[in-house]
Structures are given as structure tokens and as C-alpha cells.
Give the backbone structure.
Amino acid sequence: MRYLILFSISLFCFYNTAQSQILPERDRAVLVDRILADRFENVLPNLMYRTGIDMWVLISREYNEDPVMRTMLPATWLNARRRTILVFYWNESKNKLEKLAVARYNIGDSITSAWDKEQEPDQWKALIKIIEERNPNKIALNYSNDYGIADGLVKTDYEAFMNVLPETYKSKVVSAEPLAVGWVETRSPLELQLFQELVGITHNIIREAFSSSFIKPGKTTTEDVVWFLRQKVTDLGLETWFHPTVDIQRANEKLESHLTAFTNHNEAQVILPGDLIHCDFGISYLRLNTDCQQHAYILKDGEMTAPQFLVDAFAKGNQLQDILTSKFETGKTGNTILKESLTEAKAAGLIPSIYTHPLGLYGHSAGTTIGMWDAQDGVEGSGVYKLFPNTVYAIELNTTVNLPEWNKDIRIMLEEAGLWTSKGFSYVNKRQQELILID
């Protein structure tokens, strides 16, 4: 593991507003494959032990990839090929994880081909032979009611598999949901280090967008900032997994309904002195994703700081973050964390809304869900999933604050990547604790 971490340091260059060096594609591929090999070696065996699943079968076809399988393909595989079948078998007697592909070739350096088409032309029969030789206690397939990410086995492949599976094994077929979710949500030490740098890049891009070098009050619009963010990501050779948003709250305009914060209904607005602006922005790099919301204030002529009432309002957002993250505990469900957090926040005089989601290999990833903006009483399915260590969450929430100075309510809407481990909660790379000021 120490070698892998040192390797990543040597390749992963820091981003700052003056200069950026993102890895070239060839080096990215090397690092992605090293991360993947490490996850197969150190993450997957532990998850199979935790879930009690000794055989995991993933079946997918080119251009219709299972979301979990997509995270397992080597860097040079941009898609599955023909019908790709992966089999992971935990051999307890040998204390060994077998990583097999019912394909004519190895899948990267980690997954070994286990099908000779010349000897057995039928791919399904080759798969059944692997199962019969190992006689697993459980055969886990990717179907799930609660997680789209864990529901990647399509009807055609499920029916084809069940039609060839001997009757004696059909009672052993189970949902791979706990294993698939565990694979997607669990971060390795190397990934966590890279995640820290990735969040730092995200913060710095926001700082560049929310600066006087780009925003010219009275001229720059919210849409200008949105497309600056998109263009910056492209110029750096990165990707974004959702279209960013930038919105304004100001004294002479009423607070929009909660619903509009999650739609594209707002048209471009010219940014003016005295505005409180907010962005929702995330990037994708090295198969990890960020999700961040921050606020900035446009100084009026003569102002050196934001008005105290806005400073105080922003502090209530941090207060709600602290309340939420203090409730994290391994084994708690998202619904329990949500209920405890809302109860304490309301008792403290806040008007809270919490909608925190897992973050990692996907933006809206798999794991426990701690509220949704329209489900503040708890979430069915994913809300009863338990919190596990070595997981990352987008600490996403808002609190409504009444401003007598503006004769209206505003919302402080924050989102930062937070890490939960056996040592407790921490932010992946700090959090916003004061308003960004734009002169």
C-alpha cells in the first residue's frame, strides 16, 4: 500500500489558479488500474466476508453496461465487449479470491480469462461449469429494488442465466445489493488521498469563478459563471457529472420555493453589488466525483466585509453541518441520522433541511441516504441502509434564515465532501467557513 500511495504522489500534480497540471491520459490509465488492482486485492475480499456472499456473478453487454461492472473495467476498456461475464469467488478453504472472466481474454491484469471457446463454444455452459466446480453457498446477481446502481442485470441476461442454471443452484441465487453497494461506497486509502486533491481542485475552480478576476458586477450574469465553470473543467482535461448552477439571493426579490433550487427554471441574472450568490458544482477525475455548494458576497462600494447579518446567517449553515456530522455512527441508518439531526437542529432554533447522499464512484452514489429535499421524514429503501466506515458523503443541506435587514428569508445552502472512518468524521478537504468576498 505504501508503494501505491507514493506512486500517486509522484503522478498527481496539484491544481492552483495560476497553473494546473492534470495527468495525461496514459498516466491516468496507469493510476486507475493500480487503484483497481488494490481494490480487488484489499476491498472486495473484506466485503464478501462482511456480506456472506461467496460468489458474485456480473453479466453485461457492450453499450448497456451494468453500473457496477463499469467501475471494474480496466482503464483501456471504455465499454464491455460483446457479452462480458465476471465471476468473483471467495474460496474460504484457500483464503483466496478468484477473479474470473467468462470471456476469451483477460480483463486487465486482475481478472483472468476462464473460457476457451474452442473447447466450449457456449458461453453460458462455460459459466455453469465454473459454478458447478466451486459449488458456492450463494450466487449473487445485480438486481435491487432500492439502488439503481446495484440493479444492472437486465431482464434478457437474467432470464438466459436462470434458464441454463441447474435446478439445484436456483435456490442459491440472491440479490448482490449489499455487496454491490459496499463495492461502490467503500474507498481505499489510495482513493481517499486522491479524493482530497480532487476536492481541492473543485474548491479552487469555484474560487476562480467567484472572484473579481471574472465577475464584473453589473455586467457578468449567472449563466456566464455557469459556463466559465464548464469551460474551466474542459480546459483542464476533466469532466463534470452534472451541469453546474449559479443563483442569486438579494434584498429586493422574494425567496423562491424550495423546488426551484433543484430545477433549471431560473434564467440568467446580472450579478450586482450586495448580492449573495451560490453555486452547485462538481467534477469527475480518476473515476471519482465531487459535489460542492458554496456562497459568495458581492461587496458594495465602500464595503470591506460582508454585512454581519449575512455572516451570522452563514454561520447557521455551518452549525447545521456540525449537528448532522455529530450524529454519524457506524451501524446507524440514514433515517436515524436524519431524525436525530433535524430534532437537534430545530431545538437549536434552526429551520433545517438535510439531503445528504453518498459520493464516490458516482456523484449520487450508493450507500445510506440521509434525507432527500422532498423526504424529510426519512427515505424508504436506501434510508434504512446502515452507515459503514471508509465511505464519503456529500454533506448537503440548507437552513432558512430570516433577515429583518432584507425583510425576507434566505437559504444558506452548503455541500462538502465528508469522510466517515473508524476514527470518526472529517471533511475530505476542509469546508467553507466564511463567505467568499468579491470586490
Remarks:
- Residues 25-51 form the longest helix (27 residues).
